[in-house]
Write a structure and sequence with these properties.
With 455 residues, the protein is mainly α. It has 19 helices and no strands.
Length: 455
């Protein structure tokens, strides 16, 4: 946000550089670490929902809601906290989210110490409330997106955001894999105690090491830097258009923002939904143990995350106009196969196909973002990351409701059909976005996105 009292910038770049702290690479790795720690909240309940379901006697819908509740908080808070980056930089908003997540995990530790496993009756509302607090960590994503975007020039943002989101997204997969193993070896309380210690350490390291982008550092000193000088000072070419509210309002007026919201609802929201629901699916469909279901779900989650890294790097070099279609079709094929599969091998192959499609699509969405909304990246990332991630809350109860309505093992398969329907709706929207982009470039309303545009 520009200030009328800002000091004019002189020509001495060296003097400005001497006032700056941090670097692009350091900011990228610290933002990734903060997101990694916070994002583990999505896997707090997912791998253990079958256990809680048995102890509390939950039906499929209640189990789906429990698995998804962290995603509700994390999704909705991505909107204001993502927009807050435009005003405060990334450090303060992300630290607030990590602090609340720590409080939620402490509450969960108390519950496990006081009630688990013999006195869990009646604890379902408390588990939901703790899920709300722990889900705050998921909202770190939109903060980090803005943080990284303000540090890196546009030509390098695809790779940087791919690394950030891809490696950060390995958190649920690793947690889904390791948490059940730790529970089996150390018990529920011991496993969550270790998980909390790791989260607290990540929070401390982030607080000490992270630095806001050059524009925010200089702004804090009353220095207003022209946008064309930011890259030379070690940052990106972006600067905020105004306050968080202005950023949200401006981004909301861009048609492409809402299209990207829907795309992200399916790809990233779908990733959250599958990560939280698959342990229940593998257990109910094929009788997998808690540990086996955790390994299978981690396979899906890690493939999605790592593919996102490759997709981000490729998006800096290749045209992705037709990749939107291809990724959705791959997701659709995988979901349909899951919906009718009766064999373990087919189901596993289908989840891998869905993972690849979602991972590539996640990378594309945020590569497109800075080109469509260059002066309100934080606001747009708030809308897209927040409402898009809401799929992680909406989809699991929907799957659970269909599963319960159909019943039996067929119900666990048919539960994925609503996801297939949502993907089908996206295909004509891709065609509309391509026409809209071409029209805006022709009218001079936007520049062709390098590596990601209408080529």
């Amino acid at each position: 946000m520009s200030s009328t009292s800002a000091t004019p910038v002189g020509p001495d770049t060296g003097a400005l550089l001497a006032q700056l702290r941090g670097s692009r690479s350091s900011a990228l790795w610290m933002a990734t670490l903060g997101f990694f720690g916070g994002f583990a909240g999505v896997s707090i309940f997912g791998p253990l929902v079958p256990k809680f379901t048995e102890l509390l006697g939950l039906g499929p819908f209640a189990a789906g809601l429990l698995a998804a509740i962290p995603s509700l908080t994390g999704s909705l808070l991505r909107i204001p906290f993502g927009a807050a980056v435009d005003r405060y930089g990334g450090k303060r908003p992300l630290l607030i989210l990590l602090a609340v997540t720590n409080v939620g995990v402490l509450g969960l530790l108390w519950l496990l110490h006081a009630r688990y496993p013999d006195r869990m009756a009646g604890s379902y509302p408390l588990l939901l409330a703790l899920g709300v607090l722990i889900g705050c960590g998921i909202a770190t994503f939109s903060v980090g997106i803005g943080q990284v975007s303000y540090w890196f020039p546009k030509k390098d943002q695809g790779g940087a955001l791919g690394i950030y989101a891809g490696l950060g997204n390995t958190s649920p997969g690793l947690s889904t894999l390791l948490l059940p193993l730790a529970v089996g070896s150390l018990g529920m309380l011991g496993a969550y105690t270790i998980w909390f210690a790791v989260l607290l350490l990540i929070t401390i390291i982030y607080a000490v090491a992270i630095k806001d982008a050059p524009w925010f550092q200089l702004k804090a000193r009353g220095i207003d830097v022209p946008v064309e000088r930011l890259a030379g000072l070690g940052g990106g070419e972006l600067r905020p258009a105004g306050s968080a509210v202005i950023g949200l309002r401006h981004a909301s007026g861009i048609t492409a923002t809402w299209i990207l919201v829907y795309f992200y609802f399916l790809s990233f929201g779908g990733f959250l939904a599958f990560t939280s629901w698959l342990p229940t699916y593998w257990h109910g469909m094929y009788g997998a143990s808690l540990r086996e279901a955790g390994v299978l779900t981690a396979t899906f989650s890690l493939i999605t995350a790592l593919i996102r890294v490759a997709g981000g790097l490729l998006s800096d070099r290749l045209s992705i106009r037709y990749a939107l279609y291809g990724n959705f079709l791959l997701m659709l094929a995988g979901v349909l196969a899951l919906s009718f599969s009766q064999t373990f091998r087919t189901s596993l192959t289908a989840t891998v196909a869905v993972a690849v499609g979602m991972g590539l699509q996640n990378a594309i969405v945020f590569k497109l973002l800075p080109h469509y909304v260059p002066d309100a990246v934080g606001g747009a990332s708030g809308w897209i990351g927040g409402l898009g991630a809401l799929g992680g809350f909406v989809i699991p109860p929907l799957i659970g409701a269909v599963t319960g309505a159909v019943g039996g093992t067929d119900g666990y398969a048919r539960g994925f059909l609503p996801v297939a329907a949502l993907i089908v709706v996206a295909l004509p929207i891709v065609a509309w976005l391509n026409r809209w982009t071409t029209a805006r470039i022709a009218s001079g309303g936007m520049a062709g996105p390098a590596g990601a545009g209408a080529r």
